[in-house]
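Reviewers asked in the last cycle whether our approach scales beyond single polypeptides. To address this, we selected a multi-component target totalling 367 residues and predicted its structure end to end. The input consisted of the following lines:
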Amino acid sequence: MQRMAPAFALSVAFGAVAQAAEYSQVQADKSRIAFSYTQMGVTMDGHFKTFSSQLSFDPAQPAKAKAVIDVDLASVDTGTTEGDDEVAGKQWFNTPVFPTARFESGSVKALGDNHYEVAGKLTIKGQTRDILVPASFTAQGPFGVFDGTFTIRRGDFAIGEGSWSAFDVVANDVQIKFQISAASGS
Amino acid sequence: MSQHYTATAKTLHWLIAVLLPGLLGLGFYMHDLPLSPEKLQLYSWHKWAGVSVFLLVILRLVWRVTHQPPPLPAGMPKVQQWMAHAGHFALYVLMLAIPLSGWLMSSAKGFQTVWFGVLPIPDLLGKDKALGDLLLTVHLSLNLTLIAVLLGHVGAALKHHFLDKDDVLRRMLPRLAATAD
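The resulting structure, written as structure tokens, was:
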């Protein structure tokens, strides 16, 4: 045990160095925002090809973490061209008027074991709602990877109006799944 | 004199005879609709009915193999006999191939088939746009072929009944109607 003490001390020291890292350089190519919903009882998947994120996260000071994510709604990929065109339209995202969706973090609560609860504001199609986003953090080499899944109701944001506003064919719940990778650095 | 098909064979024949034109019409109609909840609903119904017909056809094939159908009229020319067998064979092949192509197309297009919204049917293919478009062409071509063979089938049955005046059509009709005349 005695012999191991220096090595232990060393790893703690390195750990402290790693802990001091602030992850802020978002790696767009390693990040992903996907969604799923049910349509006639069938689970459908899609994702957004373009989004930009500003992030700062220091594992030693999670309460100071900040994240702003802007999603280019016209970059939606529902799997079919017909679906993409429809969702960009007036009844869904209405991208000519509301091109981006924005998430802006507020307070961040550490839940332990690298899990966090991020309170924030989500704005889509001119509607802003307070949401709670669970996120887990994993350090992978020089990168910090943030993962999480949360559910929003499309009806809260008027996504799918007119004949789409009933939820019997396309469900109200939409699950959002994100993975954002950021390099530590400055 | 009149040798009839079994009641089971008749039931399956007429059930499918009603479902096929419905599925064909629905398929062409829904494809041209603009995207709407109704369109998505109709697609699901079309797929549920397609899976159902596929299962009914399997049932029919099992019945067909285990129950000898009544023979063709003795005086029927060899060429016509051959055409009748080829036509029936083509109908069976198409009735199996068409739902299979529809199922594969659904998978390739990223819309899993969930029978009656309850029983998920596994996707054999991953999402692949080019393959999905190709399978749409295959599904359409097979259906156009089916329409042609069906017209031949109905035409031949009517020819037997009204021109040849034999019992080929009657033996597939419900017994009451068949014995009434």
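The first strand of chain B starts at residue 113 and ends at 115. We regard this as preliminary and will revisit it once experimental data from Aim 1 are available.
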